[in-house]
Amino acid sequence: MSKSLDTSTTETEQTVTEVIDTVVATTPDVRRAIADHRGQSNSVNPTGDDQLAADLRADELFEQRLLGIDGVATYASEERADVKTTDGRLHVAMDPLDGSSNLEPNSGMGTIFGVYSEQPPTVGTNLLAAGFVIYGPITSMVVARKGSVREYILEDGDKRVVDDDVTVPEDPTVFGFGGGVDSWTDEFQSYAEEVRHELKLRYGGAMVADINQVLTYGGIFSYPGLVSAPDGKLRTLFEGVPIAHIVETAGGASSDGSRSLLDVEPDGLHERVPVHVGNQPLIDRLEAALA
Ligand code: AHG
Ligand code: MN
Ligand code: MN
Q1: pLDDT digit string, tens, across residues 83-117
Q2: How far is the CA of 234 from the centre of ligand 2 (A)?
Q3: How do beta strands 109-116 and 90-98 pair?
Q4: Span 5-24, pLDDT tens digits
């Protein structure tokens, strides 16, 4: 019994490594897609967002390459209605291009990925690894796996570690709240009013870049439930849960307003969830404010 368990664990870890290295190897092609495929595609994704040609190109690249890995059984992404399946054991869920509204103004964008032991939709505690790439002045990647968070610089499809133990700093410095002041609930408005006197505003419209601010400087990122959209804007499987896994692994906390995002049991592939991640005390205060 223990033999097969060991083998599957080793195989599982090998597949997780292959997924991470395939994402790394694909980043130069995604950067090229951002430069070359800049138009609209006249189509919308399953959550109703307009799709840029770069969204579709990035999704195509990742789907081909990740499904080409022996141990990968399925590929799911915010850009496609259904899960793509093949033989294998692990399941990859992706936001192939995060913050694509930043393409035109050339602000930060990224890729978010999660490797699950069960086929999505599934709960965040089934994540084996999660990570995000930032296509910024340099290309960087942050990965949470086996209880720690590492940051890498990516060059020419290779990665080198720049921080092998990323942890959310104790003293918070920044905050970033999405959705727009007038769309917030009264409870979130009062919380935001307190926080904005304590911390510095860092909100750039691409989740991965705003999250990296929180990982670097401490603070909180929220895309809250709105009066008009109680589940907010961000997708549970492709954005909220993988990012929550990273921030919690880095010693921070996450919440959908009342509990960890890793405990949210999504019914559908494309559902949305309010996202709050950052220092535990700020998340505790937020949950108290929304209670
Ligand atoms: P995507 O480009 O993958 O749809 O993600 C955009 C998301 C997220 O990256 C960001 O935090 C949020 O949308 C910004 O929303 P607003 O434009 O409403 O601020
Ligand atoms: Mn996207
Ligand atoms: Mn996104």
Answers
A1: 999 999 999 999 999 999 999 999 999 999 999 99
A2: 10
A3: antiparallel
A4: 455 789 999 999 999 999 99
Q: What is the Å distance from ligand 1's center to 1 Cα?
A: 46
Secondary structure of 129-143 as H, E, C letters = EEEEEEECCCEEEEE
Q: Is the CB of 205 under 6 A from ligand 1?
A: yes
Mutate to test the pocket of ligand 1, among 177, 203, 213, 233 (most ligand atoms within 8 A of CB): 233
Q: Considering the entire predicted model, what is its pTM?
A: 0.96
